[in-house]
Amino acid sequence: MDILRRMAEYRSEEESLKWEGTFSEYVELLKERPWVAQSAHSRVYNMIKDAGVKEVNGKRDYLFFRNQLFGLSEPLEKLVEEYFHPAARRLDVKKRILLLMGPVSGGKSTLVTMMKRGMEAYSRTDRGAVYAIKGCPMQEDPLHLIPHALREDFQKEYGIKIEGNLSPLNLMRLEKEFDGQIENVPVERIFFSEDKRVGIGTFSPSDPKSQDIADLTGSLDFSTIAEYGSESDPRAYRFDGELNKANRGMMEFQEMLKCDEKFLWHLLSLTQEGNFKAGRFALISADEMIVAHTNETEYRSFISNRKNEALHSRIIVMPIPYNLQVTQEEKIYEKLIADSDVAGVHIAPHTLRIAAMFTILTRLKEPKRKDIDLIKKMRLYDGEMVEGFNEADVQELKTEYDDEGMNGIDPRYVINRISSTIIRKEVSSINALDVLRSLKEGLDQHASITKDVKESYLGFISLARREFDDMAKKEVQKAFVYSYEESAKTLMDNYLDNVEAYCHKSKLRDPLTGEEMTPDEKLMRSIEEQIGISENAKKAFREEILIRISTYARKGKRFNYQSHDRLREAIQKKLFADLKDVVKITTSSKTPDEQQLKKMNEVIARLIDEHGYNTSSANELLKYVGSLLNR
Ligand SMILES: Nc1ncnc2c1ncn2[C@@H]1O[C@H](COP(=O)(O)OP(=O)(O)OP(=O)(O)O)[C@@H](O)[C@H]1O
Ligand SMILES: [Mg+2]
Q1: Are 608 and 615 in contact (CB under 8 A)?
Q2: What is the mean pLDDT of residues 379-407?
Q3: Is the confidence at residue 21, as pLDDT, over 90?
């Protein structure tokens, strides 16, 4: 009963975190742990920073987002550094509503949810601890109790700046319950919880006509007016609007731009002046981060309306585009599949990668540079080495458009197509071809795409298919070689020995007989011809390889067959060319002989053991490659 024990531990941990004391004890506590008085924005920033930052080539990767959001490190870096960080330092951006703008299913809600869950957990840590006036429905900051006249002195002594006024409710309690004795007001540690409505709120507009502002700012409790005698008695008011409840933490504002303007103005005064108006009371101070999200179309129509200009200048918009890296897109699918009820189905190797390639192609914009096609751009974005291009080219490509990633296919669509494939096929495995087929069929039902867009998407499906054909052939051919890496290495070593002798005009020594031999021109050419190196160009190619080897040696790195893209390709093609007929005949024979059957079984076993297939996907792959080679 491990879970029961863990639950008990969790409860006792919760007990041990509790703290309660008087205001004077709280002020003592601040001497040692001044950070607990930080603002909501600062707490959010510190939560993100405390999860760790990895710096690579001057770019910062915030690990807080790592487990759930993939391929968004650049927009997230911008978000942290242009909003969270300056807002934490009380700079002007704090006074604006944060609006995340991005395409559908691009991870906006996921991002906000991560922050909400993160704040809940952070408030249970020492660094993220929060204290409030005990029994206050808005968990008001205890420091609001300090009168304005004394705040400057307090700041000098404690280094803590106090913002905001004591709320009408606590002002009344101070007088009635504590006789104005601030020192005696009870303070407690609080823990953020969306479920319990502490420090985390979510507001989602309903029908604009029936929407009540009370949802945001609370409302009068008519049942208690008689008891307190007046509508302006704060005790007769329920401070239970979303803005009240989210005080000290954050509020998510869903579909903000669909909301009535009236509501938005409330928010603006809150963000701008740090207070809002409720009932018949003086302004109520609140300290919370407001995060809203919207899609691009809605946003465009919002800013094109002149009436919204004033609102617009009080919002800070942060783009959350789609991920543009194939490898990261694969991770998104893996995550979504693991969370779904099709998690047990075998997905053949490359399936998700091919689907991801299609998706990324739909999101990329045609490069303006003539020497790069879309496939190359896709590879470069994914961090692959593409001969002839370097990191500077990648950066240049990224600056060609400033709105890349704002449209294209969304991950949810792909996952839906994958699930429907699984359900329809009713088998225990699916492969890349199944998924491409399903993606293609789905385009007919896809509501929001025009004929032109559909045409181009069909083109991307063919491109992805071609990539798959290539991978499939390579995989099968590799599986035909007893030990591919070994064979490739032997062939390359042999080639390099010959090249060296050729360039140095020396002889080779036969390892067995010790006999001297001239370089094997036929062997060298048979490899070079694979990548179209002409008789005239061979000398330059061989010399270039020797130079590469000595560069490697100087840097203390080992040169292997992966170190030179073109050489690797040549070696691979040579190995495959030697095999081609065997593969072709074996995989496509309708009545395989004993020898062929044995080979097939060997290859299938290797696909299963070394490449992650299962019996049915390995058989499908072999059959498919057989048909490709016979075209
Ligand atoms: N970059 C990403 N990394 C990880 N998961 C992602 C990413 N983009 C989308 N997803 C996943 O896709 C699904 C849809 O994302 P989410 O609901 O967060 O998008 P959204 O931007 O809020 O969409 P909408 O505009 O439809 O509300 C989620 O399950 C999410 O985890
Ligand atoms: Mg959403």
Answers
A1: yes
A2: 91
A3: yes
Distance CA 614, CA 607 (A): 8
**Pair 614, 429: CB distance under 8 Å:** yes
480-496 mean pLDDT: 83
pLDDT of 1 = 64
Is residue 583's pLDDT more than 90?
no
Of residues 385 and 498, the one with the higher pLDDT is 498
The alpha-helical segments, DSSP class H, found in 204-246 are 214-217, 222-228, 242-245
Atom in ligand 1 nearest the alpha carbon of residue 68: 4
For tokens 């390892």, name the residue. Answer: 511
Positive or negative torsion for Cα 58, 63, 66, 72? negative
* pLDDT tens digits along 70-114: 999 999 999 999 999 999 987 778 878 899 999 999 999 999 999
In sequence order, the 6+-apart residues with CB closer than 8 A to the CB of 458 are: 440, 443
Q: Whose CA is nearest to atom 11 of ligand 1?
A: 107
Tell me which residue of 17, 44, 244, 49 sits closest to 131, measured CA to CA. Answer: 17
171-185, 268-282, 302-316, 586-600, range with the lowest pLDDT: 268-282
Q: What is the pLDDT of residue 425?
A: 64
Strand-pair category, 516-517 with 289-294: unpaired
- Distance between CA 267 and CA 274 in Å, rounded? 9
**Run of H or E residues at 131:** strand 130-133
Residue 156: band (very low, low, confident or very high) from pLDDT cuts 50, 70, 90: very high
Task: Output the CA torsion sign for 21, 25, 29, 30.
Answer: positive
Nearest ligand, measured from the Cα of 320: 1
Calculate the alpha carbon distances from 359 to 364, 394, 398, 441 in Å. 9, 20, 18, 15
Q: Buried b / exposed e across 344-379, counting CB within 10 Å, b at 16+? A: ebbbbbbbbbbbbbbbbbbbbbebeeeebebbbbbb
Whether the Cβ atoms of residue 354 and residue 437 lie closer than 8 Å to each other: no
CA of 411 to the centre of ligand 1 (A): 7
Evaluate whether 476 touches 587 at the Cβ level (below 8 Å): yes
Report whether residue 412 contacts ligand 1, using a CB cutoff of 6 Å.
yes
The verdict on the CB of residue 105 being under 6 Å from ligand 1 is yes
Please tell me what DSSP assigns to residue 537: T
Backbone Cα Rg of the chain: 33
List the alpha helices (DSSP H) in 19-93. Answer: 23-32, 40-50, 73-79, 85-88
Q: Which two tokens stand for residue 8?
A: 């008990």
Percent of residues, the chain, with pLDDT higher than 90 = 55
Mutate to test the pocket of ligand 1, among 109, 328, 360 (most ligand atoms within 8 A of CB): 109
Residue nearest to atom 23 of ligand 1 (CA): 105
- What is d(CA 20, CA 393) in angstroms, rounded to the nearest whole number? 59
Predicted pLDDT of residue 45: 97
CA of 100, closest atom in ligand 1? 21
104 within ligand 1 shell (Cβ under 6 A): yes
Phi-psi category of 85—alpha, beta or left, where left has phi over 0 and alpha has psi -120 to 50?
alpha
Point out the ligand 1 atom lying closest to the alpha carbon of residue 339: 29
Cα 342 to Cα 83, 419, 452, distances in angstroms:
39, 7, 33
Tell me which H or E stretch contains 289. Answer: strand 289-294
The answer to whether 285 and 165 are in contact (CB under 8 A) is yes
Q: Whose CA is nearest to atom 30 of ligand 1?
A: 107
